[in-house]
Target: Phosphoribosylglycinamide formyltransferase
Amino acid sequence: MKSIVILISGRGSNMQALLKAKLPCRIAAVISNKTDAEGLEFARKHGIQTAVVSHRDYSDRASFDAALAQTIDGFQPDYVILAGFMRILTEGFVKRYYGKLVNIHPSLLPAYGGLDTHARALHDGVKIHGCTVHFVTPDLDHGPIIIQAAVPVLSHDTEKTLAARVLNEEHRIYPQAIRWLCENQIELDANGRVVLHRHKQSAHSLISPGLE
Ligand code: GAR
Model:
Protein backbone atom coordinates (compact mmCIF):
# COMPACT_ATOMS: atom_id res chain seq x y z
CA MET A 1 0.00 0.00 0.00
CA LYS A 2 1.24 3.48 -0.91
CA SER A 3 1.75 6.05 1.77
CA ILE A 4 1.26 9.80 1.68
CA VAL A 5 2.19 12.82 3.73
CA ILE A 6 -0.16 15.84 3.63
CA LEU A 7 1.16 19.39 4.04
CA ILE A 8 -1.15 22.13 5.30
CA SER A 9 -0.88 25.74 6.46
CA GLY A 10 -4.32 26.47 7.87
CA ARG A 11 -7.91 25.29 7.90
CA GLY A 12 -7.13 21.99 6.24
CA SER A 13 -10.54 21.31 4.70
CA ASN A 14 -8.93 19.54 1.73
CA MET A 15 -6.88 17.44 4.14
CA GLN A 16 -10.13 16.58 5.94
CA ALA A 17 -11.72 15.56 2.65
CA LEU A 18 -8.74 13.28 1.97
CA LEU A 19 -8.97 11.71 5.42
CA LYS A 20 -12.74 11.19 5.14
CA ALA A 21 -12.42 9.62 1.70
CA LYS A 22 -10.89 6.44 3.15
CA LEU A 23 -8.29 6.32 0.41
CA PRO A 24 -6.45 3.10 -0.40
CA CYS A 25 -3.23 4.43 1.13
CA ARG A 26 -1.63 5.02 4.50
CA ILE A 27 -1.67 8.62 5.67
CA ALA A 28 1.73 8.66 7.33
CA ALA A 29 1.55 12.23 8.66
CA VAL A 30 0.10 15.70 8.37
CA ILE A 31 2.81 18.36 8.47
CA SER A 32 2.31 22.11 8.84
CA ASN A 33 4.56 25.13 8.65
CA LYS A 34 2.32 26.77 11.26
CA THR A 35 1.95 25.58 14.85
CA ASP A 36 -1.59 26.95 15.04
CA ALA A 37 -2.89 25.47 11.77
CA GLU A 38 -6.49 24.48 12.54
CA GLY A 39 -6.23 21.31 10.50
CA LEU A 40 -3.63 19.78 12.84
CA GLU A 41 -6.21 19.20 15.56
CA PHE A 42 -8.52 17.37 13.16
CA ALA A 43 -5.65 15.11 12.05
CA ARG A 44 -4.66 14.33 15.66
CA LYS A 45 -8.26 13.50 16.56
CA HIS A 46 -8.29 11.04 13.68
CA GLY A 47 -5.17 9.31 14.96
CA ILE A 48 -2.86 10.73 12.29
CA GLN A 49 0.65 11.66 13.30
CA THR A 50 1.38 15.38 12.99
CA ALA A 51 4.54 17.47 12.80
CA VAL A 52 5.31 21.17 12.58
CA VAL A 53 8.27 22.69 10.76
CA SER A 54 7.85 26.41 11.33
CA HIS A 55 9.20 28.59 8.56
CA ARG A 56 9.80 31.24 11.22
CA ASP A 57 12.64 29.15 12.63
CA TYR A 58 14.66 29.43 9.41
CA SER A 59 16.41 32.42 7.93
CA ASP A 60 15.87 31.52 4.27
CA ARG A 61 13.74 29.35 2.02
CA ALA A 62 16.51 26.86 1.30
CA SER A 63 17.14 26.01 4.96
CA PHE A 64 13.40 25.77 5.68
CA ASP A 65 12.89 23.48 2.69
CA ALA A 66 15.84 21.31 3.79
CA ALA A 67 14.31 20.90 7.26
CA LEU A 68 10.89 20.22 5.74
CA ALA A 69 12.34 17.58 3.41
CA GLN A 70 14.11 15.91 6.33
CA THR A 71 10.83 15.70 8.26
CA ILE A 72 8.93 14.42 5.21
CA ASP A 73 11.56 11.79 4.45
CA GLY A 74 11.35 10.55 8.04
CA PHE A 75 7.86 9.26 7.13
CA GLN A 76 9.07 7.69 3.84
CA PRO A 77 5.99 8.65 1.82
CA ASP A 78 5.36 7.70 -1.80
CA TYR A 79 3.59 11.03 -2.39
CA VAL A 80 3.68 14.47 -0.80
CA ILE A 81 0.28 16.15 -1.00
CA LEU A 82 0.04 19.92 -0.69
CA ALA A 83 -3.38 20.83 0.69
CA GLY A 84 -3.46 24.57 1.22
CA PHE A 85 0.28 24.65 1.95
CA MET A 86 0.94 28.33 1.42
CA ARG A 87 4.71 28.43 1.02
CA ILE A 88 6.66 28.96 -2.17
CA LEU A 89 8.97 25.98 -2.48
CA THR A 90 12.54 26.16 -3.78
CA GLU A 91 13.49 24.58 -7.08
CA GLY A 92 15.70 22.10 -5.23
CA PHE A 93 12.80 20.91 -3.09
CA VAL A 94 10.43 20.59 -6.05
CA LYS A 95 12.97 18.67 -8.14
CA ARG A 96 13.71 16.32 -5.25
CA TYR A 97 10.04 15.24 -5.24
CA TYR A 98 9.26 15.55 -8.96
CA GLY A 99 6.42 13.19 -9.86
CA LYS A 100 5.64 12.71 -6.18
CA LEU A 101 4.57 16.22 -5.24
CA VAL A 102 0.93 17.13 -5.87
CA ASN A 103 -0.97 20.38 -5.30
CA ILE A 104 -4.52 21.67 -5.45
CA HIS A 105 -5.13 25.18 -6.70
CA PRO A 106 -8.41 27.14 -6.72
CA SER A 107 -8.54 28.01 -10.42
CA LEU A 108 -8.54 26.37 -13.81
CA LEU A 109 -4.79 26.46 -14.39
CA PRO A 110 -2.96 27.81 -16.27
CA ALA A 111 -5.38 30.70 -15.61
CA TYR A 112 -5.11 32.50 -12.29
CA GLY A 113 -2.04 31.11 -10.62
CA GLY A 114 -1.09 32.82 -7.36
CA LEU A 115 -3.41 34.40 -4.82
CA ASP A 116 -6.94 35.90 -4.87
CA THR A 117 -8.05 33.64 -7.69
CA HIS A 118 -11.79 34.07 -7.11
CA ALA A 119 -11.66 37.87 -6.92
CA ARG A 120 -9.60 38.00 -10.11
CA ALA A 121 -11.97 35.66 -11.95
CA LEU A 122 -14.95 37.79 -10.89
CA HIS A 123 -13.14 40.96 -11.89
CA ASP A 124 -12.45 39.56 -15.36
CA GLY A 125 -16.04 38.41 -15.78
CA VAL A 126 -15.13 34.85 -16.71
CA LYS A 127 -18.11 32.53 -16.98
CA ILE A 128 -16.30 29.37 -15.99
CA HIS A 129 -13.96 29.05 -13.03
CA GLY A 130 -12.85 26.01 -11.06
CA CYS A 131 -9.99 24.13 -9.50
CA THR A 132 -7.03 22.00 -10.54
CA VAL A 133 -5.00 19.15 -9.09
CA HIS A 134 -1.53 19.02 -10.62
CA PHE A 135 1.99 17.74 -10.17
CA VAL A 136 4.25 20.48 -8.87
CA THR A 137 7.06 21.87 -10.98
CA PRO A 138 9.46 24.71 -10.13
CA ASP A 139 7.12 27.15 -11.95
CA LEU A 140 4.59 28.36 -9.35
CA ASP A 141 1.10 26.93 -9.96
CA HIS A 142 2.12 25.14 -13.13
CA GLY A 143 2.75 21.50 -13.82
CA PRO A 144 1.11 18.44 -15.33
CA ILE A 145 -2.63 18.53 -14.70
CA ILE A 146 -4.24 15.45 -13.15
CA ILE A 147 -7.85 16.59 -12.87
CA GLN A 148 -9.88 19.78 -13.03
CA ALA A 149 -13.43 20.68 -12.09
CA ALA A 150 -15.29 23.51 -13.79
CA VAL A 151 -17.60 25.74 -11.78
CA PRO A 152 -20.00 28.14 -13.52
CA VAL A 153 -19.73 31.76 -12.38
CA LEU A 154 -23.22 33.07 -11.58
CA SER A 155 -24.30 36.67 -12.07
CA HIS A 156 -24.93 37.21 -8.35
CA ASP A 157 -21.69 35.53 -7.22
CA THR A 158 -19.49 37.20 -4.64
CA GLU A 159 -15.95 36.10 -3.86
CA LYS A 160 -17.37 34.16 -0.90
CA THR A 161 -20.11 32.29 -2.78
CA LEU A 162 -17.82 31.45 -5.67
CA ALA A 163 -15.04 30.29 -3.33
CA ALA A 164 -17.51 28.05 -1.50
CA ARG A 165 -18.66 26.32 -4.70
CA VAL A 166 -15.09 25.89 -5.90
CA LEU A 167 -14.08 24.46 -2.51
CA ASN A 168 -16.89 21.87 -2.79
CA GLU A 169 -15.36 20.76 -6.06
CA GLU A 170 -11.87 20.72 -4.54
CA HIS A 171 -13.17 18.30 -1.92
CA ARG A 172 -14.52 16.10 -4.72
CA ILE A 173 -11.55 16.04 -7.11
CA TYR A 174 -8.63 15.91 -4.66
CA PRO A 175 -9.59 12.54 -3.15
CA GLN A 176 -10.27 11.29 -6.69
CA ALA A 177 -6.80 12.34 -7.88
CA ILE A 178 -5.03 10.81 -4.89
CA ARG A 179 -7.06 7.62 -5.26
CA TRP A 180 -5.85 7.34 -8.87
CA LEU A 181 -2.27 7.92 -7.75
CA CYS A 182 -2.44 5.32 -5.01
CA GLU A 183 -4.03 2.80 -7.37
CA ASN A 184 -1.23 3.37 -9.93
CA GLN A 185 -3.75 4.72 -12.44
CA ILE A 186 -1.65 7.77 -13.31
CA GLU A 187 1.52 8.09 -15.30
CA LEU A 188 3.59 11.05 -16.39
CA ASP A 189 4.49 10.57 -20.05
CA ALA A 190 7.72 11.65 -21.74
CA ASN A 191 6.20 15.07 -22.53
CA GLY A 192 5.39 15.63 -18.87
CA ARG A 193 1.65 15.13 -19.42
CA VAL A 194 -0.58 13.04 -17.23
CA VAL A 195 -1.89 9.83 -18.69
CA LEU A 196 -4.82 8.26 -16.91
CA HIS A 197 -5.52 4.60 -17.40
CA ARG A 198 -9.25 4.89 -16.71
CA HIS A 199 -10.20 7.45 -19.34
CA LYS A 200 -13.94 6.90 -19.01
CA GLN A 201 -13.96 7.58 -15.29
CA SER A 202 -12.00 10.79 -15.72
CA ALA A 203 -14.31 12.15 -18.40
CA HIS A 204 -17.17 12.19 -15.91
CA SER A 205 -15.14 13.59 -13.05
CA LEU A 206 -13.88 16.58 -14.98
CA ILE A 207 -17.14 18.44 -15.13
CA SER A 208 -18.89 19.86 -12.11
CA PRO A 209 -22.42 18.51 -11.59
CA GLY A 210 -23.98 21.85 -12.56
CA LEU A 211 -22.56 21.54 -16.06
CA GLU A 212 -23.32 17.92 -16.80
C1 GAR B 1 -7.78 25.80 -0.95
O1 GAR B 1 -8.76 26.54 -1.64
C2 GAR B 1 -6.62 25.47 -1.87
O2 GAR B 1 -7.01 25.23 -3.19
C3 GAR B 1 -5.81 26.75 -1.77
O3 GAR B 1 -5.86 27.11 -0.43
C4 GAR B 1 -7.11 26.67 0.13
C5 GAR B 1 -6.80 25.87 1.37
O4 GAR B 1 -7.98 25.51 2.03
N1 GAR B 1 -4.46 26.53 -2.23
C6 GAR B 1 -3.76 27.44 -2.92
O5 GAR B 1 -4.18 28.55 -3.17
C7 GAR B 1 -2.39 26.98 -3.35
N2 GAR B 1 -1.86 27.83 -4.35
P1 GAR B 1 -7.99 24.31 3.05
O6 GAR B 1 -6.86 24.59 4.05
O7 GAR B 1 -9.33 24.39 3.72
O8 GAR B 1 -7.77 23.03 2.30
In short: Confidence is low (pLDDT under 50) at residues 207-212. Residues 8, 10-14, 83-84, 104-106, 141, 167, 170 surround glycinamide ribonucleotide (CB under 6 Å).
